[in-house]
Design brief:
CATH class of the largest domain: Alpha Beta
CATH superfamily of the largest domain: Ribosomal protein S6/Translation elongation factor EF1B
Oligomer: single chain
Radius of gyration: 36 Å
CATH topology of the largest domain: Alpha-Beta Plaits
Distance between the termini: 87 Å
Number of strands: 4
Number of domains: 2
Structural class: alpha+beta
Length: about 190
């Protein structure tokens, strides 16, 4: 009988040890294995992203610096009002014209979307725009050549408005006009 009681007591102690120590330790090990698997996945993803970064960096370094400069001029990542005005003035100077009365509006993102168009479309755009108004004077042929050069330039600009006023006839007999121009240019946010 003592043998049976000892067997039952041993079995009860073994069951108590299993339920009080072994089962919680086993569950804890399973949780830790799950975390280790998540960390291994994260490390694999980080290694994959590192390889992607290296391949993109090697592709980026394959571009010529001149092409990167042209791309930066095409769609810059910031607005440089002074550089834009100087570029436009140099472009006009090639055709014996000069920029006058330059007025720069604030970017659409800073205006708070006060217009209907600004409130509808400005929130989700990845670019911003700036409006530039200026006046120039010259013959129609010079102005036409100026607009052609502006169109062919790398900088993306839209002519928003254009008005011309006849001013005078110069000594050579050609007409001189005053051109009031409003253009919009863009950059990445």
């Amino acid at each position: 009988m003592v043998k049976n009681l000892l067997s039952i007591a041993g079995l009860a102690v073994a069951g108590g040890i299993f339920f009080l120590y072994t089962q919680p330790a086993y569950d804890n090990v399973q949780v830790l294995k799950g975390r280790i698997a998540q960390y291994d996945q994260a490390l694999d993803k980080a290694a994959e992203l590192q390889q992607l970064k290296q391949s993109l960096l090697s592709r980026f370094n394959a571009f010529r610096p001149e092409d990167l400069d042209r791309l930066q001029k095409l769609l810059p990542d910031h607005v440089d009002n002074v550089r834009l005005i100087l570029d436009l003035d140099n472009l006009a100077a090639r055709h014996d014209m000069a920029l006058q009365n330059v007025v720069i509006s604030e970017p659409a993102s800073e205006s708070g979307g006060t217009t209907v168009i600004g409130s509808i479309g400005a929130g989700h755009r990845r670019f911003d725009s700036l409006t530039l108004k200026f006046t120039t004077r010259g013959s129609y042929e010079d102005f036409s050549a100026f607009l052609s050069d502006l169109e062919a330039s790398l900088r993306i600009v839209n002519v928003v408005s254009l008005s011309l006023t006849r001013e005078s006839t110069n000594a050579t007999g050609s007409l001189t006009y005053r051109y009031d121009i409003t253009i919009r240019t863009y950059w990445l946010k």
